[in-house]
Amino acid sequence: MADATLIPLEVLFGNPERVGAQISPDGTRLSYLAPLDGVLNVFVGVIGGGDAQPVTRDTERGIQGYVWTHDNRHILYVRDRDGSENFRLYDVDLETGAERDLTPFDDVQCRIIRLPKHFPNDVFVGINKDNPQLHDVYHLDLTTGELRKVVENPGFVGWLIDNELRVRGAMQPTAEGGMTILVRDDDESEWRTLLDVPPEDAETTGPIAFNGDGTAMYLLLSVGSNTARLVTMDIATGETEVLAEDPVYDVGNVILHPDTREVQAAIVYGERLQYRIFDESIRGDVDALAQLSPGDLAISDRSHDDGTWLVAFDQDAGPVKYYTWDRATQTATFLFDHRPELNDYPLVPMEPFSFTSRDGLTIHGYLSFPPSVERSGLPAVLNVHGGPWARVGWGFDPEAQWLANRGYVTVSVNFRGSSGYGKEFLNAGNREWAAKMHDDLIDAVDHLVGKGYIDAKRVGIYGGSYGGYAALVGATFTPDVFACAVSAVGPSNLNTLIASFPEYWKPMIQLWHKRVGDDPDFLWSRSPLSRVDAIKIPILIGQGENDPRVKRAESEQIVAAMTERGIDHEYVMYENEGHGFVKPENRLDFYHHVDRFLAKHLGGRAE
């Protein structure tokens, strides 16, 4: 390991050189996010021309995501202030350079619902201006900028709009923590129930879109099976037809034809992405693209005539690679790597592994080993994913590369409650925060110690959001397992966490109660703050001042308790951040703190 090059944190966690590429609807221009004076902005230029210029001028947190409108002229993006998640919608006119704030409301959140391809002047957005808990549906006229409310929200948390611009599908939470999927025949009709989804299926069932003529709805559906299947449901009769399913993994994504809305492919995420092709007209394209790179393929954009695709390959041991794909000539043209400097460093693979938990569940995850060392008795970092109803997957993971480069085995575990492995696995995490969900993490450590890979006395636990909570649980519930803990934006008290949720999360509170717990005594018993006296390892905590999800108090109450008891800890708080550290200077500062902290307590290297 001594001769392995130390990868600078700037290379892994600074701004990417270029990322988030898209093509214009007419297929002639390329856009991407790139730094302008150190802040990510949108650049646009002719494909292959090398002449891209910035079209936005953000100087604060940078633009996280954007989208072309179907008129080929505007780019839309959302932006919040200091991590508040009160997103406003902006656009820039590429012909005039004029930028507009399309939702100029304070303390209000805007969400894009749909940009219909065949109505290029129309945009549908959700705005919680009149009731902070509920997003009403507004129509935005791109030419005039006029906003007009088209549906008052009676208690829905999601919307579907058909190809005729009619708001005809919705999702409504139930008092039991389930979900009702509703439809109506047109804008004037009454809503009626299409499907009642019980609580155990609420995370693994949901609508995707209407079909082309609006007579059926595509859904991911786990009702009646363990895994989420792709189905089409007739709106008049409720009859379903299963289009794609897998016995082990959920169907996770669907590719629809941009014009006909027919299903072209379903995507299943096993150890890696798997495409299930339904439309023979794209099978040759997908097969040819698969030969281009060992990475996982994402078809990220398509021109209006469907003749040009923009694709990206996510690979575990290298940067994300972007190409255009000419379907007529079956020719790929390389555009760029998102972080080309990575090509100069010794990156390591993400290796899938699995083990059996103490109560018999099969748990999957990924290991990243330090390069060029014997796999024996190594220090390790258990990197716990957030969510928790999410999963870690294969691909370029900057944290895995950083930790492996510093000399640690990086252990990423899809513990029970993680998504993608069917509803039984997800529901096995119900009311198991700091209990069986944490047992799975401990079992992963024991499994790897038993294999001889890692040194039981040199294991750290690290994560953000739920992963930050898990790190605090590691320090308080299992203080003898870990040598140190790092928590970023992690809750310390489940009662105060749930009581302080943002207003627009409150319609989903019953699902939280179902999955986490509802009794204050029970929630306190699963809170790291209740066991501060058990801490015997050093802890590093990072927090964003304006975090709307895990409020600043979640970090500060446990920091205060540790200070009172004289427990070894470090605390870093970033004044202009929210749930996670977006500004590069803050992100890099935090990773420098963690780099030094882990080196001090686990013996690895630091920059």
From TrEMBL:
Pfam families: Peptidase_S9. Residues 394-604 form the Peptidase S9 prolyl oligopeptidase catalytic domain. The keyword Hydrolase applies. It comes from the Bacteria. Keywords: Hydrolase. One of its GO terms (molecular function) is serine-type endopeptidase activity. InterPro entries: 6-blade_b-propeller_TolB-like, AB_hydrolase_fold, Peptidase_S9_cat, Peptidase_S9A. GO terms for biological process: proteolysis. PANTHER family: DIPEPTIDYL PEPTIDASE FAMILY MEMBER 6 (PTHR42776:SF27), SERINE PEPTIDASE S9 FAMILY MEMBER (PTHR42776). This is S9 family peptidase.
